[in-house]
Specification:
Blueprint lengths: L1 E9 L11 H4 L5 E5 L7 H14 L2 E5 L17 H21 L4 E4 L3 H9 L1 H15 L3 E4 L3 H9 L4 E6 L22 H12 L2 E3 L5 E3 L4 E5 L5 H14 L2 E3 L8
Parallel strand pairs: 1-2, 1-9, 1-10, 2-3, 3-4, 4-5, 5-6, 6-9
Antiparallel strand pairs: 7-8
Helix pairs in contact: 2-3, 3-5, 4-5, 5-6, 7-8
């Protein structure tokens, strides 16, 4: 029997600005990554997401980013290692308080946007992210691409690393994601569903047609995608057709 974790980035609304359908996607995934107020999210949204994590029994992850509401955390901003570590500790502490109030715990950390991408290629950023998780709680896992600096450094530190693939993003031949400002960056509809199935089976096709080996533990559906709920429904259905079951990565598997 084969299993795969399906995760969604949620909690990216704040104030009167609404993004995604958080509760609608909860029955369709096994893990969530909650924005922690720097790139998106606020104290009311974070509290609600922790409540939903408890009600639906999904893994609760922190989704910290650069302090960049204007750019939705998708702009690379130069910070020192100490600044990056501390900005993550700040965000982890905030989400942890809401999680504790709901009787749940943070199981993983997945950096957001530019911070995620920077940690893949920049040693200093990867070290800062890994250190933040280590000093906050070394039992918490890090979610990242199945290669790159963060994967290597976190593994060397003895942290649990969850290898991630993306249903709705294009891939470069070297396994990195296609930058959002380039052609082929996004996958939609049946193309995204097909890519999710391929990832669950251990491979993915790059924008140039190259087939890449991609052993992943979890597959992401971006919650800010307007078709996220429909996409997650289709992915669930097609995975079942392949006898692949959606299950949170921390649960014991047969």
């Amino acid at each position: 029997m084969k299993y795969i974790d399906l995760n969604a980035d949620i909690g990216e609304s704040y104030g009167n600005f609404k993004v995604g359908e958080d509760e609608a996607i909860l029955p369709l995934v096994s893990s969530i990554n909650v924005a922690c107020g720097f790139h998106a999210g606020d104290f009311m949204v974070m509290a609600e997401c922790c409540k939903l994590a408890r009600e639906y029994g999904v893994n609760l992850g922190a989704h910290p980013g650069y302090p960049d509401l204007w750019g939705f955390g998708r702009r690379s901003i130069p910070y020192t290692k100490e600044e990056i570590t501390n900005m993550l500790l700040y965000q982890l502490g905030a989400l942890s308080a809401f999680a504790r109030a709901e009787g749940v715990k943070i199981t993983h950390v997945k950096p957001h946007g530019a911070l995620y991408n920077d940690a893949v290629v920049k040693v200093e950023v990867a070290e800062a992210v890994a250190r933040a998780v280590w000093v906050f709680d070394a039992e918490i896992a890090i979610v990242t691409l199945p290669y790159g600096r963060l994967f290597e450094i976190a593994s060397e530190m003895g942290l649990t690393v969850i290898r991630e693939g993306f249903a709705d993003r294009g891939y470069l031949p070297d396994g990195r994601l296609v930058p959002r400002n380039q052609e082929g960056a996004k996958k939609t509809g049946d193309e995204a569903v097909a890519q999710a199935i391929a990832l669950a089976e251990g491979w993915v096709k790059a924008v140039d047609g190259t087939v890449i080996k991609a052993e992943v533990d979890t597959i992401c559906v971006h919650g800010d995608n307007i078709e996220a709920v429909k996409l997650a429904q289709k992915i669930n259905r097609e995975l079942l057709n392949k006898n692949i079951y959606v299950q949170a990565w921390r649960k014991k598997r047969a």
